[in-house]
Queue: 2 jobs
Job 1
Amino acid sequence: MANWRTTVKVKHLFTEEEDYESIAKSMNAVADVLAKEVLFNRFDLKPFRSIPTGDDFFAPIDYANKLLDRMYDYADENLIWIA
């Protein structure tokens, strides 16, 4: 069992909507919270603040999900619990 260093609450900021505006707003809000966490100081938040509008192959939701995967991977590596 892991001994988590800290807990970061961002799940309440996730959106169930899949439109560009909702996703961009959600990812910016997540970035705002992560920016205040010292243990995320080596994590690149720029992509969270510049969600692309997407195209026929890659929608904004796909991009956001990839970013969230990276966030969870980083959190696991640094013993940060995401709530």
Job 2
Amino acid sequence: MKPQEIVSSARHALTATVEAVTGFAKLERVLAVVCGCTPALLIWSDDGPIRNTISDYYNMKQNQLFYVPLTVASMLFVVNGVVKKKHFYNTLLGVMLAGVLLFNVDDFTTLHAVFAIGFFGGNAVVIVWKSPRKELGFKLLLVALIALAIIGWLFLGWYSLFWAEWASLGIIAVHYILESLDLIH
């Protein structure tokens, strides 16, 4: 092979790789939005009043609307952790979310709670973990919003856990999107 053919071949391979990674990043953003909007889908598709937690929707009539988006979100975390090896913690977060789905809230109350706390708490830790100094204030604000959502539910009784979980999922989705856009690290 001639030198210019090698360069051309390498340039083509690099371009294809960049396009694939860019496509994956766009997919990540779409999936993050789906994850953040899943509670709205659950409310819209259920026959009754808003349930106490997102996890309570596992036994709704159209339960695929509970399982599919959250399973996709779980796999998004796992794939992100595998593809971006520096984000190994996302693999763990994906496993935590999978545990929430595998062990329903009624039959496996304690195990379900461990996975749910691991997922939401782990995300709060990840948001601020290894944050560059210039982003730390913004990321602490995101975590503070998650904490306020939990305080409003747990200590103040302003709303059900469903709303605190939705707020947390929304914040997690926003963080994920900002990170995939390279606006934060």
